[in-house]
């Protein structure tokens, strides 16, 4: 019972711990749970050894976490526990079952936003208490993380944002050489930034991974005595000893100094001590000789502690196992059960040198690829704050009839999919002439190979919604980072919509991609199409020529297809017409769904030299260029069938004028049938539900648009 899991096999480089071992990756989550269970058993044994432990005294509504003394000497601690010396444990106050734990994180930019998600996952996985995250974020991180948490809908988690850009003036006077830049100094001003009634907070770097319940760390606050206001782990490198190279001159520090990747802050006491004035005076004094910081806020924290050693409570080093090169981190643990917080505090991150790095990397990757939807766990017995979005969702779902054969289709319309906007770095300023056009599309993992080709054909901005699992999102990240074509483009917005449910939410994906464009116009395409070379510039000219800014027009880009996987792409309309005549190309879906594009009037297009207007007809689904304020796609249509048809019908109902562009074209590239079209063809109930949804959509159109919408019912009956 409670036997530790040894790390010793790593030292002999056993294949069991090799990065390539799929078996360990799959079982690591189970092992983490086993360790938690071992810890629980150990706590129970310690409690029984005391005869009548604090958990018994307080009843079932609370829980006690036994905490080791903050000496940093974990070996002597274990010896004490083995010897049955549990009196210290018995004296520790409990972390109440429903006590809220406050966590502060500074986060700026696209990459840091991804790191925060992995950190939060590791905290959520182990937690048993309500959490309140205080995120000091720039505008980019706030947009990403606000959407992410709003769509994640994790119970008993509250998020507050604080504008990092407003804090820049507080620390911009401090020169900093660290790669974290100005944001690496903002932990210094938390006493001023966070609410004045917040008494204590755990402060974390974004490159932290938790291997235990964060409540155990929160309980350490009860051990602070006297004037102790900072809980820190000793720095595990030799940096502050000043002997790393000739003329190496670090900032002053107490002994080895302290690492600020994990900080316990007693905010109320710090404010009374005039912390703001204390660190500023220290920084000003040291900067006169040091000129700049090398390790951002950490240098200043250490300089203050050097002058005022009574401020610090030294945490055991397993609360911040620092995985940078040449550290003493291996002295912080002997067994898996010793590990509590892992800190990837080297610029190399996962490529750092450490005897057990494969184990740590796999632990990190477990949370990186862990399905975040599984973390939407209720904390039973803890009242949650009323969430309007969650309550509305429950109300909408409760109104559905679960016995309805189309229940799953109807439910999908209300499903909230966790969404991570701008998964990769995005940087684009729209053209100042107000003619800019963004290509909008959606895809899943099986269409990833189209991205490079589209980027070569379309040089303008692109907005993509990708429907992926957490593990697939990491595969996509590796694919993108390994592609010179994709990495050279900063004007492509990649928005991850995480998988949930049995249908492909095609119209939700389109709406996500549409919503996050920064140009006045958008080209509503699909991922399987390659636009003609030069289409981006041609569309920008057409926008002006056809006065799209002041008229309700939908500009149609005629669609063609090839059945050949290797195609010599036509470089002009003349070349395309020649290939059409030779049978190398066809008008899109000519063989299987002529009605979808017949109104484009391809016969007229062959000789057209000027734009021409066409009328809406039943089942028309062209690819169009519209203003960004056009209607969204209807979310009731999922998977295959009627998802674009319904949108074009609504454009017509809103009196959009359909205009075909004479010198524009796009070509559909062949691919294996999608899972959804296969279901449509093989499943009779799928087809029945689609027909039902179509009829309901048409009825909704009639109610919304009145007499003018009757033509859609008539057209459907005649088709």
From TrEMBL:
InterPro entries: Glyco_trans_8, Nucleotide-diphossugar_trans, Xyl/GlcA_transferase
Catalytic activity: 3-O-{beta-D-GlcA-(1->[3)-alpha-D-Xyl-(1->3)-beta-D-GlcA-(1->](n)-4)-beta-D-Xyl-(1->4)-Rib-ol-P-Rib-ol-P-3-beta-D-GalNAc-(1->3)-beta-D-GlcNAc-(1->4)-O-6-P-alpha-D-Man}-L-Thr-[protein] + UDP-alpha-D-xylose = 3-O-{(1->[3)-alpha-D-Xyl-(1->3)-beta-D-GlcA-(1->](n+1)-4)-beta-D-Xyl-(1->4)-Rib-ol-P-Rib-ol-P-3-beta-D-GalNAc-(1->3)-beta-D-GlcNAc-(1->4)-O-6-P-alpha-D-Man}-L-Thr-[protein] + UDP + H(+); 3-O-{(1->[3)-alpha-D-Xyl-(1->3)-beta-D-GlcA-(1->](n)-4)-beta-D-Xyl-(1->4)-Rib-ol-P-Rib-ol-P-3-beta-D-GalNAc-(1->3)-beta-D-GlcNAc-(1->4)-O-6-P-alpha-D-Man}-L-Thr-[protein] + UDP-alpha-D-glucuronate = 3-O-{beta-D-GlcA-(1->[3)-alpha-D-Xyl-(1->3)-beta-D-GlcA-(1->](n)-4)-beta-D-Xyl-(1->4)-Rib-ol-P-Rib-ol-P-3-beta-D-GalNAc-(1->3)-beta-D-GlcNAc-(1->4)-O-6-P-alpha-D-Man}-L-Thr-[protein] + UDP + H(+); 3-O-[beta-D-GlcA-(1->3)-beta-D-Xyl-(1->4)-Rib-ol-P-Rib-ol-P-3-beta-D-GalNAc-(1->3)-beta-D-GlcNAc-(1->4)-(O-6-P-alpha-D-Man)]-Thr-[protein] + UDP-alpha-D-xylose = 3-O-[alpha-D-Xyl-(1->3)-beta-D-GlcA-(1->4)-beta-D-Xyl-(1->4)-Rib-ol-P-Rib-ol-P-3-beta-D-GalNAc-(1->3)-beta-D-GlcNAc-(1->4)-(O-6-P-alpha-D-Man)]-Thr-[protein] + UDP + H(+)
A GO biological-process term: protein O-linked glycosylation via mannose
One CC-aspect GO term: Golgi membrane
Span list, region Disordered: 1-26, 46-74
Known pathway: Protein modification; protein glycosylation
Membrane disposition: Single-pass type II membrane protein
Coiled coil in keyword set: no
Alphabetical UniProt keywords: Glycoprotein, Glycosyltransferase, Golgi apparatus, Membrane, Multifunctional enzyme, Signal-anchor, Transferase, Transmembrane, Transmembrane helix
CDD domains reported for this sequence: GT8_LARGE_C
Transmembrane feature ranges: none
Molecular-function GO terms, alphabetical: glucuronosyltransferase activity; xylosyltransferase activity
Subcellular location: Golgi apparatus membrane
One Pfam family this sequence matches: Glyco_transf_49
Family, per entry: In the N-terminal section; belongs to the glycosyltransferase 8 family. In the C-terminal section; belongs to the glycosyltransferase 49 family.
PANTHER family recorded: GLYCOSYLTRANSFERASE-RELATED (PTHR12270), XYLOSYL- AND GLUCURONYLTRANSFERASE LARGE1 (PTHR12270:SF48)
Protein name: LARG1 glucuronyltransferase
Organism: Rhabdornis inornatus
């Amino acid at each position: 019972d409670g036997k530790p899991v040894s790390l010793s096999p790593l030292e002999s480089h056993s294949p069991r711990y090799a990065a390539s071992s799929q078996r360990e990756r799959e079982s690591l989550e189970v092992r983490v749970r086993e360790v938690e269970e071992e810890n629980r058993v150990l706590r129970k044994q310690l409690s029984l050894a005391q005869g009548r432990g604090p958990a018994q005294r307080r009843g079932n509504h609370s829980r006690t976490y036994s905490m080791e003394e903050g000496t940093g000497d974990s070996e002597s601690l274990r010896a004490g526990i083995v010897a049955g010396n549990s009196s210290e444990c018995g004296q520790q106050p409990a972390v109440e079952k429903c006590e809220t734990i406050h966590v502060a994180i500074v986060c700026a930019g696209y990459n840091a936003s991804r790191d925060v998600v992995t950190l939060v996952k590791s905290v959520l996985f182990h937690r048993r208490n309500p959490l309140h995250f205080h995120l000091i974020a720039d505008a980019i991180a706030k947009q990403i993380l606000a959407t992410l948490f709003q769509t994640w809908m994790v119970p008993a988690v509250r998020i507050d944002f604080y504008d990092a850009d407003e804090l820049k003036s507080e620390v911009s006077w401090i020169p900093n050489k660290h790669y974290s830049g100005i944001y690496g100094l903002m932990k210094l001003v938390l006493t001023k930034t966070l609410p004045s009634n917040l008494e204590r907070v755990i402060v974390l770097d974004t490159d932290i991974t938790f291997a235990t319940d964060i409540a155990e760390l929160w309980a350490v606050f009860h051990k602070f005595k006297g004037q102790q206001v900072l809980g820190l782990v000793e720095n595990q490198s030799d940096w502050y000893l000043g002997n790393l190279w000739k003329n190496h001159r670090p900032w002053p520090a107490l002994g080895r100094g302290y690492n600020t990747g994990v900080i316990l802050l007693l905010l109320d006491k710090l404010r009374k001590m005039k912390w703001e004035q204390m660190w500023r005076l220290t920084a000003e004094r040291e900067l006169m000789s040091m000129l700049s910081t090398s390790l951002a806020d950490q240098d200043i924290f250490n300089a203050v502690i050097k002058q005022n050693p009574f401020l610090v409570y030294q945490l055991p080093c397993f609360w911040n196992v620092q995985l940078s090169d040449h550290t003493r981190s291996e002295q912080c643990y002997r067994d898996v059960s010793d590990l509590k917080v892992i800190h990837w505090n080297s610029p190399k991150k996962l490529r750092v040198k450490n005897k057990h790095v494969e184990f740590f990397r796999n632990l990190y990757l477990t949370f990186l690829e862990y399905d975040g939807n599984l973390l939407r766990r209720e904390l039973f017995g803890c009242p949650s704050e009323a969430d309007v979005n969650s309550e509305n969702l429950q109300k909408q779902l409760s109104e559905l009839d679960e016995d309805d054969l189309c229940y799953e289709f109807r439910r999908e319309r209300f499903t909230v999919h966790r969404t991570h906007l701008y998964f990769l770095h995005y940087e684009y300023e729209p053209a100042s002439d107000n003619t800019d056009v963004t290509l909008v599309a959606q895809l899943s993992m099986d269409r990833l190979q189209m991205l490079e080709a589209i980027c070569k054909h379309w040089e303008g901005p692109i907005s993509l919604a990708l429907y992926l699992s957490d593990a697939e999102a990491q595969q996509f990240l590796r694919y993108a980072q390994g592609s010179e074509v994709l990495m050279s483009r900063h004007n492509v917005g990649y928005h991850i919509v995480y998988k949930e449910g049995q249908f492909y939410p095609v119209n939700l994906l389109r709406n996500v991609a549409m919503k996050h464009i920064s140009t006045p116009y958008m080209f509503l395409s699909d991922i399987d199409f390659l636009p003609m070379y030069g289409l981006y510039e041609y569309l920008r000219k057409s926008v002006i020529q056809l006065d799209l800014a002041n008229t309700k027009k939908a500009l149609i880009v005629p669609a063609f297809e090839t059945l050949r996987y290797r195609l010599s792409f036509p470089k002009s309309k003349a070349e395309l017409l020649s290939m059409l005549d030779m049978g190398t190309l066809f008008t899109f879906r000519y063989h299987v769904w002529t009605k979808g594009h017949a109104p484009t009037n391809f016969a007229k297009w062959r000789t057209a030299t000027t734009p021409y207007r066409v009328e809406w007809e039943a089942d028309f689904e062209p690819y169009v260029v519209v203003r960004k304020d056009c209607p969204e796609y209807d979310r009731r249509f999922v998977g295959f069938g009627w998802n674009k048809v319904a949108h074009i019908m609504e454009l017509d109902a809103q009196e959009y004028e359909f205009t075909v562009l004479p010198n524009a074209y796009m070509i559909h590239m062949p691919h294996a049938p999608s899972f959804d079209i296969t279901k449509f063809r093989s499943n009779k109930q799928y087809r029945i539900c689609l027909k039902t949804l179509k009829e309901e959509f048409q009825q909704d159109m009639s109610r919304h648009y009145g007499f003018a919408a009757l033509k859609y019912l008539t057209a459907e009956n005649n088709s």
